[in-house]
Amino acid sequence: MVFADGMGKNFTPQKKILLLTPRGFCAGVVRAIDTVRIALDLYGPPVYVRKEIVHNRHAVDELRAHGAVFVDEVDEVPKGGRVIFSAHGIAPQVRHIAAERRLKVIDATCPLVTKVHLEALKFARRGYRIILIGHKDHDEVIGTLGEAPESSVVVETVEDVEKLEVPDPEKVCYLTQTTLSLDETKGIIQRLKERFPSIQGPPAQDICYATENRQAAVKAVAPMCELLLVVGSKNSSNSKRLVEVSENQGVPAHLIDDASEVNLAWLAPVRTVAVTAGASAPEHLVQELIGFLKKYGFGEVEEIRLKEEDVRFVLPGELTSFGGMVQTIGAS
After folding, report:
1. What is the spatial distance between Cα 312 and Cα 328, in angstroms, rounded to a whole number?
2. In the β-sheet with 82-85, what is the strand arrangement from edge to edge?
3. Full residue range of the structural domain in which residue 182 is found
4. Count of domains for the chain
5. Cβ(53)–Cβ(24) under 8 Å?
6. Catalytic residue positions?
7. 307 falls in which pLDDT band (50, 70, 90)?
């Protein structure tokens, strides 16, 4: 589109990129990826990893290239081998099988996921029915559900809440997957409280700080852009939620693994595009996307910085016992 300036000369307005901060790796993802890298350095390949260490294709492929071997279940690991549990957590049964096979275990479960597991155990021991809000096929939910399967039920929607039957309405609690949409979860919790007025929840919300911050950034930038591009893999729950949050704000959004998946038709009518990344997406993919967008006229980059993240997590104990090793890591 061509405009005229005050002197009658024609000009084409500069297209703009709004780069959201915070974005990309959270402390739990940094911890998990560093755990695999350090294990490879210490022990050499192969180091086995149950499931994807984080839900990002590029991050997994990079670790695989350095000698990590990804398996679906621990019975695929040779007896006596070394295995790392992913950031999403595991059910106790997986740990039992690993012990039976005499596997050397390094647990890279995100501490915020471990918090939810401990809450599930606490409520189960007190005889509560646990309502676990989340996506039933997600690795994190499968792991949490495994802590108290006889006491727990998964709900994904408000409609699921309507169908709930509980043994004792006075002994009901709810927990949530850490990577959910805040808005969607709020509605489910509200309906649970209406149906079960005595329901208890966690002392602090289970949705993690990184999920909350990235969703808040998308909401803040929505009035300023016409399109949002989210760097993240299709199986990344928190990345998919960013797309949903944007669309709920009336801004079209697309989830892409990398710049190669951008459809130029998306860009044609757009003057301002916002860019963010899910909590498991490497920063170099964001920078490559920006480089790609610049080739198509988006020459101005403005960073929208909403919050600083300074969360740090201690490395798994199996690694911190080595003398001189760095013991705290976090978002960079």
Report:
1. 6
2. 68-71, 47-50, 82-85, 104-107
3. 112-195
4. 3
5. no
6. 140
7. very high
